[in-house]
Specification:
Helices cover about 60% and strands about 5% of the residues. It has 21 helices and four strands. It is globular.
Length: about 475
């Protein structure tokens, strides 16, 4: 007797003790996603800088200088009239001049800089002097990381279909440790290009690890319970965001910070003994005996006995999903194509807002650490509200209304830009805007199970992440 695997789950427990334990384990495996994806908030943070004066010792220089050199304690307010010189990128040939510089004095480009280390001991900006003409390399490093995330979605998606979910998860975890440590070493001792390559590789493995964990959770939970855990899975990403802010507050050195967020991932290799392979994938790959063993384990841990359950549910002729499905299948049929394109565009827009606000935490004013911590904390009410209202009001109405509200919140923030008196209100609006978006940022994950066969879920996730890279 051939049956659908979802029917098997309905008989052995859709979300019992077994699935809860696996959800917690795989959720922990999603925390590195929040740590690595937003690490650029601190690794690539802006640092105030100025040109090094001729007489200064670079190793002993302070960003804040006395009025002996600049005529003020604030170098930002240095002489800037008409043909005056820019204290950041150019300086007079005789940089020891006191008082007001004559407009006719020749000036040259700086080749050494002094950085403000009051907030960050160092970043990639000060490590490789990514200022003035090289400033574009800062944002480029983050873009390269996200390009690696794109590559990881595609590459490890294919790998997961070949060697299995849990093996792919373990492989990504191991490589993430290796490349994470490599990135720390390159930051400390290597050239900028080597550091960027390491961050690219970290992005690929982070994508493979996080998305594989999500897919495994989706595949092991029955259809009537699948929506809640799929949404709450994003909460583990938020925990990673909060944890990153906490760690970075106490560890201001980027070298040590990268080691701290990379090395603990090696503990996830214990999942080789703790997390079984996806029974759905085993069935799709004709590995019925292994699938039957896992199904029996699920039934036992969920306190379901095989007595009274149709033996055909465990027959070796269990129905397979279409193993020949590809990304192109999402665009073949008119209705499926319409839904897919719609969801792809929504994912793109929400990712644009979400990562733009998250990576821009340092520009909101106040403490960058508090800003990032709150941005992760406020996600939890959004997820809870999402779980409670999704089935009651329906996907379409709730999604549209939330996107409209999020857009209005973004526009409402504009009048408060640069207004220090309304700084708190401004940050509050930013949080509301961001979390309204994040509440439905991963909504396609919650509804994709109702539109696409299980075998195509992975390709759907790949396409969504593909679009979110181009924010």
């Amino acid at each position: 007797m051939a049956v659908d695997y979802d029917n098997v789950l309905q008989n052995i427990g859709e979300f019992g003790k077994f699935q809860i334990i696996q959800f917690l384990l795989l959720g922990i495996g999603g925390i590195p996603g929040g740590l690595q994806n937003l690490a650029s908030v601190f690794l690539a943070a802006d640092q105030q800088f100025r040109c090094k004066k001729d007489h200064e010792n670079l190793m002993e220089s302070l960003y804040w200088v006395s009025n002996y050199s600049f005529g003020t304690n604030d170098p930002v307010s240095n002489y800037t009239e008409k043909k005056g010189w820019d204290y950041q990128c150019t300086m007079p040939i005789n940089s020891t001049l006191k008082g007001k510089v004559n407009n006719t004095v020749d000036y040259v480009e700086c080749n050494q800089w002094v950085y403000d280390s009051s907030t960050f001991e160092s970043t990639i900006v000060s490590q490789w002097d990514l200022v003035c003409d090289n400033k574009w390399k800062v944002s480029m490093s983050t873009s390269v990381y996200m390009a690696g995330f794109l590559t990881g979605c595609i590459f490890f998606g294919a790998i997961s279909d070949k060697i299995g979910r849990i093996r792919t998860f373990l492989l990504c975890s191991l490589l993430q440790v290796i490349f994470g440590v490599g990135g720390a070493l390159m930051f400390q001792y290597g050239p900028f290009s080597a550091y960027v390559i390491m961050r690219y590789l970290v992005g690929t493995t982070t994508a493979g690890q996080y998305t594989t964990a999500f897919v495994m959770i989706v595949e092991m939970i029955g259809p009537s319970w699948r929506m809640g855990p799929a949404i709450l899975m994003q909460g583990w990403f938020a925990i990673g965001t909060m944890l990153l802010a906490f760690i970075a507050y106490f560890i201001r050195d980027p070298f040590t910070l990268q080691l701290v967020i990379a090395l603990p991932i090696i503990l996830l290799l214990s999942y080789y003994w703790l997390v079984p392979e996806s029974a759905r994938w085993l069935i799709a790959e004709d590995k019925y005996k292994k699938a039957q063993a896992i199904i029996k384990t699920i039934a036992r841990k969920n306190n379901h006995t095989l007595i009274g359950i149709n033996v055909g549910l465990l027959d070796i002729e269990v129905k397979k999903d279409d193993v020949s499905a590809t990304c192109c299948d999402l665009l073949r049929m008119p209705n499926l194509r319409k839904v897919s394109i719609n969801v792809f565009f929504q994912w793109f827009v929400c990712s644009l807002v979400y990562y733009g606000l998250s990576l821009g935490s340092g520009t909101l004013g106040g403490s960058i650490y508090i800003n990032l911590f709150l941005s992760g904390l406020i996600e939890f009410p959004a997820y809870i509200v999402c779980c409670l209202t999704l089935n009651r009001f329906g996907r379409k109405k709730l999604l549209c209304s939330s996107l409209i509200f999020g857009g209005m919140a973004c526009l409402a923030c504009i009048p408060f830009l640069g207004n220090n008196g309304w700084l708190y209100f401004f940050k509050l609006n930013i949080c509301v805007c961001k979390k309204t978006q994040i509440c439905f940022h991963f909504r396609p994950n919650a509804i994709c199970h109702y539109f696409f066969p299980a075998r195509k879920i992975w390709h759907f996730c790949i396409f969504c992440h593909y679009l979110h890279i181009f924010r």
